[in-house]
Amino acid sequence: MTYEIDVEMEQKAADFYQSLGINQGPGDIQYRLILLVLNKNEGEVTEFADIREYTDRFADKGSIGSKMKTVFQLEGLVEKVKRGGYIITDKGIIAANFLKDTTDFYKKTKRMEDIIERMP
Predict the structure, then answer these.
(1) What is the rounded CA–CA span in Å between residue 57 and residue 66?
(2) Chain segment 68-119, per-residue pLDDT in tens
(3) How far apart are alpha carbons 71 and 77 in whole angstroms?
(4) pLDDT over threshold 90, residue 61
(5) What is the number of alpha carbons within 13 Å of residue 17 lying toward its C-beta?
(6) Could you tell me how many helices (H) and strands (E) the chain has, helices first?
(7) Counting beta carbons within 10 angstroms of the beta carbon of residue 103, is it exposed (0 to 12), middle (13 to 18) or buried (19 or more)?
(8) CATH of domain 7-118
(9) What is the per-residue DSSP string for 33-99?
C-alpha cells in the first residue's frame, strides 16, 4: 500500500481532536504518525528509523520507543519481529483505518466551517 503521509494535515487533525478534548489516539500526533507509517508498510517490516523520519520533529528522544512498547505492542497493534523492526497487526490496520476516517472527518468539518463563515 503506497501513499504519502501528509504530516501537516495530520498535525491539523490532531490539533482539532485535542480541541475537542481527545488527547489520545486521534489527538496524539505521535500516535497518528507511527500508526500511519506502520500501515504504509503493511505486510513488510517497518524499521524504527522509518518511523523516526516522520516523528522526530514532534517527539523527544526515547518517547517513540517508549510509546511503541507501552501503547502499540501492549495493545497488540504491532508485533516486534527484530530489534527495531515491527509489523502491523490486523488490529493495527483497523486502528490506522480509523485514523484515516478521523482525518476525513476533520477535512469535511473544516470545509463546512469555511462555507458557514462565508455565509452572509
Answers:
(1) 16
(2) 988 999 999 999 999 989 999 999 999 999 999 999 999 999 999 999 988 8
(3) 8
(4) no
(5) 23
(6) 5, 3
(7) buried
(8) 1.10.10.10
(9) HHHHHHHHTTTSPEEHHHHHHHHTTT--TTHHHHHIIIIIITTTSEEEEETTEEEE-HHHHHHHHHH
- Per domain, the residue ranges of the chain are 7-118
Grid coordinates representing 100?
A: 484515516
- 87 φ, ψ (degrees, to nearest 5): -125, 135
pLDDT at residue number 64: 86
Amino acid at 7: V
Per the listing, cell 505486510 goes with 43
Judged against a pLDDT cut of 60, whether residue 1 lies above it is answered with no
| pLDDT for 111 | 94
